[in-house]
Amino acid sequence: MTNYVLVTILLSGLVTWLSRVVPFAIIKNLTVPKWLIDFLSFVPVAIMTAIFVESLLVYHAGQWPGFNLENIYASIPAILAGVLTKSLLAVVITGVIAMALLRLVGWG
User: Fold this and answer.
1) b/e map of 73-82 (b: 16 or more CB within 10 Å)?
2) What's 32's DSSP letter?
3) 8 Å CB contact between 98 and 78
4) Could you tell me the keywords of this UniProt record (predicted)?
5) Model's pTM, two decimal places?
6) Hey, which residues does 58 pair with through a beta bridge?
């Protein structure tokens, strides 16, 4: 490994670490308005929804997206687990097991 690659890796790690630590250090000494906290509380839900919907669609250049039926079928029990348990761990485990079973029976 050359020095250039090593320095690049170390600086990338430093920038990644700083971009995660500095906002907490700055906001620690500030009073954040309630409306901003309320607004930011929706960010994780929006991000998870975007990731979820994106995984259900298949991109076709110049056409409308199609559906990834394997992911749709596996998401049904995962959604039910989320509604029933309100546990992210239960959703993830149920989704992984559902996908494994779909692939086991050859639907994927």
Assistant:
1) ebbebbeebb
2) P
3) yes
4) Membrane, Transmembrane, Transmembrane helix
5) 0.61
6) 66
Which conformational region is residue 106 in: left (phi greater than 0), alpha (psi within -120 to 50 degrees), or beta? Answer: left
CA distance 78 to 98: 8
State residue 108's pLDDT score. 64
**Rounded to whole angstroms, how far apart are CA atoms 74 and 65?**
19
Q: How far apart are CA 21 and CA 15, in angstroms?
A: 10
Contact criterion met (CB below 8 Å) for 92 and 100: no
- Write the pLDDT tens digit of every residue in 28-68: 888 888 998 888 888 888 888 898 899 999 998 999 999 99
Least Cα distance to 56 among 42, 74, 81 occurs for 74
- How many C-beta atoms lie closer than 10 Å to residue 98's C-beta? 20
Helix (H) or strand (E) holding 107: none
What CA–CA distance (Å, rounded) separates 1 from 30?
43
Distance (Å, whole) CA 76 – CA 98: 9
Residue type, 91: V
